[in-house]
Amino acid sequence: MGIVRFGVLVWFAAACGFSGSAALCADLQKEDLRSIQESFRKADASLDWFEASAKKPIDADRSAMVVLAAPTELRPFGVKKTLARVPVPEKTEIGVFVVSGAGNQVQLRLDLFPANVVNGETPTLDETGTNSLALHFYSDYGIYAGSIKYFYDLAGGKPTRKIRYGKLALTSSSIRGGTLIYGASSSGWSERHATVTIDPRAGEGRPGFKIVDVPAPDADAVPQPVELRLPDGGSVQVVGTPPGQTHQPAGFAVSDKSGKRQVFIAPVPTMEMYRKLRPKDQAPLEIENDMGPVALDGSTVWFANHFYDGEGTSGVGAIGTFDVRTHKFEMRYLPEITAWSGSAIRLDGENLWVGLMRQPEGAAYGGGLLRYNRRTGLTAKYEIPDYIYTIDHVGDTIYCGTENGLYSIRGSEITHLSFEPDVTGRIVGVRAGRKALTRG
Fold it and tell me: What is d(CA 405, CA 365) in angstroms, rounded to the nearest whole number?
């Protein structure tokens, strides 16, 4: 009687969805796991179900792999409740390996631990170095839980070092004298709150940085509506749904210097517009429209809208303007943004920069950085994979504070600086390889 595969264990199926590539998951299941199976069985001979979860190259011959293993047992399966051998989720093991060649010969087993140690959270494999790699874990609905970094020595045979940590997110920013100052935090297994100071350097040099721990913010503090001060002494305030209340129309409240206040509601896309502008997506039961990030240019407010994208609700992303003098809205439903909400915005001369994000049921996630030229209408998209919180411009470089460190854009090239432990456990800046602009 053969083993019935559920298509993979439930949370590994989530990992495939999280990676965004069904083809990648299918390719992983073609990997030769015989050497890895032998390594698993040396620790537990009862394991007889194996699935590759992730694989990334280290160099021309070697790769890092994450593989799941479990014993199987007879259980009723399918509509007819036929007995079949199925993997036992509560006994699943996670193995982390350095392998070589097409046959994935095990060079080193970095770790082997029960999935229940991390509460069945989904492991994803980060970019690897020549002697280190990192696993990031996500719980149900894609919520980040924590990370493990491994340091290993294939040649010298030193013991593998394993360090747990939390990704440092740069969530707010300011500029003082050309220096970037970020409010930062990490969550999951390693909660931390800090101020990160970034000292930009010209050319290809890695920016200097300093991390100083600060007290945790007041957890009970209620977010205040965004308010923009007008040149004539008046103000514009974002109007939306207060925390914990049912959805309400969104727009702007304009107050003159005498205090007189008027509210203007932003246009809401129709269902017909949704079907036209997002033809590949199933139409929702309800359209939502909220104000996302805003930026003021004289008497014109530029903004990207925001919508919840789950449980029968969705929307259509756009770049919008609101003229404070005429009270007129203008919406630009660009193809690059119609499926996305805005997470951050910056006016930079002719260019408007918008961080793209989506808020499904669960954790929000990023969709890149959009550049829109206000004069020509031309767009370009930069493939920044992490959720963008802030966008700043210093010198010849755009800086994006994200859920996983700092991305810098100079010309058409992108560099990622994440903050991770070194072999001693001290947090250092790790600079990833440069990426190019993918679409213009």
Answer: 15
